[in-house]
Amino acid sequence: MLTAQERRERRQANQQARRRANLQRMGENLQNRLSTFYMDVIRTIPVPIGPTLIYSNIKVNVGFSSADNPDPQTAPTSPVLESVRVNLPHKIEVRNDDSIILKVLGANGKWKGAFRGVAGNPYEVNSRKRFHMNVSALGAGDDSEGLIPPPVEELPPPDPNEISIITISFKDTNDDKIMPAVIYEKERGEMVDIPSLDIHGYNFLHTIVDGVIYNFPSVAFIATNPTYEITFVYSAETSLIYLRPFVLSGNFKDSNGVSKNGAHWYRRLDFTVVVDDPLTVHITSPPLGTTDPRITHSESRGIIRLVTGARVLVEPDNAVMEVVTSTRQGNGWDLTLEPTTWIDAEITRWYD
Question: What is the SS3 assignment for 346?
């Protein structure tokens, strides 16, 4: 058994490793949102013409609702991005079922890749036209018609007097940083659309733009000032409410309902704290075995045993714990838990 000091040190190391992994993923996600996109439109015209390039390298604004990364063991590809919305100038005519190519210019001025999708019905939103679609990563050899033009030439840096510098911060109610700030530039006169992030263990409260508080989870405006300070403010969840068993491998569905196979954290289990140190919890649901605490995975039908050595994730702190003992008590089981090393596995909420 670990001493109380050793448990605290291991818990702190575990939380730091979890925070580093989460911040890296969220930083990559935010950088994707701050990229510049250029659009090609390919339309199928009846025989004998066939697929035809209608527009190329049209600058557009793109927003993402979610991202699904394929299992790297079976699909070594770029992410599949779902629920994409594209905002474009009114003068650009896009039709339902047009083939769309989105080419991505990163915040660092380097080309990052391209995505293909099929446009939904376009509609008018204030001063812009908009349509939605699902897109998938465009790999080598995907341009079978030879229609996709190369990306536009990278332009020289803009005049410093013609850009806006935007600083985005993520803080809690004590003004402490939750993750590092992001700074990027936008040409004046361009549309800025910045969403807050879903940060596990925190609840979004409000947004502060240049000292003014707004109760909106995202900000959108036309850049005109030299600088902008945007802060998304969150409140921390403090109570330990759920635990999730770790499944080393097996079929499951991610948080978007996409079928996958591999290591993952399974469904939430309610618990009550019996003893704080060492942490001992009592669980009663779902129906558990009478000889040992076990549940059946609804996808793989595998048996998950919460016995000595099993790993669980305690939410919302995302602390990885190891079962030291399991004892039958009343209508459930008492589990004694100790902190252990971080496991970087997908947290699925499809089953919650």
Answer: strand
